[in-house]
Amino acid sequence: MKTGAINPALLASRLYTLWLTRLNIVQTINPIPVMTDMTHAQNHTDTCFECAEACERCATACLEMGDQDSQHHNMTACIKLCRDCADICTLCGRLEARGSQFMQQYMQLCADVCEACATECEKHADHHAHCKACAEACRRCAAECRAMANQM
Fold it and tell me: What is the mean pLDDT of residues 14-27?
């Protein structure tokens, strides 16, 4: 290594130490709720992101199918709810990952939106595999969001 060159491992170690110090200071000044069971929290975050992905896939599939494929159903409500659900699930997962003080309220909202999306997708689940997969993911996410919100 050249004289005066920066050692990447040492730099990463120092940045990590600095970040932990800042995090400790911020937590001391403005404590926010942090999940004590990180495994459960990680599972919930994963569930939120999986639901968001299922909703995005469902909305895209609905947009791409023609009148014949849609079985002449109006898929507008399905697409709108899938987009809303994907957005709130992604946001809920991100807020939980950072330990937001608003997690409980967002989890309750996420559960409500997931249930509405699941109800709409279930109307089309017999005809469209993507709607069935989306409804199942939404039901899982709604149940987990409610459980997490009730624990707080």
Answer: 54
